[in-house]
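Chain A, query sequence.
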Amino acid sequence: MAAVGSGGSPAAAGPGAVSAGTLEPGTTTAGLLLTRERAEVGVQDLPHPFPDTSARIPAHRRLKYISLAVLVVQNASLILSIRYARTLPGDRFFATTAVVMAEVLKGLTCLLLLFAQKRGNVKHLVLFLHEAVLVQYVDTLKLAVPSLIYTLQNNLQYVAISNLPAATFQVTYQLKILTTALFSVLMLNRSLSRLQWASLLLLFTGVAIVQAQQAGGGSPRPLDQNPGVGLAAVVASCLSSGFAGVYFEKILKGSSGSVWLRNLQLGLFGTALGLVGLWWAEGTAVAHRGFFFGYTPAVWGVVLNQAFGGLLVAVVVKYADNILKGFATSLSIVLSTVASIRLFGFHVDPLFALGAGLVIGAVYLYSLPRGAAKAIASASASTSGPCTHQQPPGQPPPPQLSSHRGDVSTEPFLPKSVLVK
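Chain A, predicted structure.
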């Protein structure tokens, strides 16, 4: 099969390749490749029309396992590190300063990556940023709204984690799946399958059970923590997360721009808006005690995790399908719970285990692609009785669909037995 260039003309034939112009009249390239003579002389003696991609499969699977590990570690470690830093004895740092520092580091990192993409040419970088940020100012201003919401969300996370156990926050924060789905239906006119609606109901039920356990005093908590404030903060954070994600997708559909440019623009707005929030909420205290008051190695770990962890996830998330993301979320909940028992003396009672289990199951069911959901529905329907459809006489049977489809979004990279353990 001849390769076709961008202009539509076949590429120059290499050694052993057959050009379409050398065929006899009435003979096609496909016909030549599939003749009986090809099989008789031996397949190994002729170039195969399709490249062998079997060697690429292990590498692709390794990338998925790496992305799974990154997603799990980043999701769990950020929550645990914030909880640890906020509950340490001694002077407590200002959360608004940590949000600003994370945005500054994120913006500087993206600027350095763009500088590397321009091969260290300062002039090219300046011209590129002038064109992308100033000339195309409409696209830049579009990012002001999601940046404002993300800044608010980051501050709300500190409030929520300061007042809720890490495991409880991790479970409750999955309400962002529900808010994102609702905003997708309202703003993007998307439709959800019945399985997805059922999983959202299951998710809400699981979160309600966990919050009922928290309100009932299932585990001891310090006197300076208010579960009601924590719940209000995490619900507001979920609402802002869902709206910002859907709005971000809507305004940037069809627009060009690398992930580093978009994160740089978000970092610029996030830094400015974070400073405004710092001045409004804790301006007097910060001016009196200093910007870096209460900063310890643990606090710097939180800032670095929030700045670089998000960028790392942005890199590896393209290798993760929906099932992988859902599986990573479930593992993060389990890891956060186990670590909370070890680090913070968290007590897991049957009510929390039930609610967390419902949330994990709901996340997995919601992450199933539509193809898998239809397969589950058809499998359950087939158990009710045999199919009564019969092929009319004289007609060939319909072709059987292969179970190895090329669409990677409809098949998990992990075996089913591993996912449901």
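The longest helix spans residues 56-87. Confidence is low (pLDDT under 50) at residues 1-50, 383-421.
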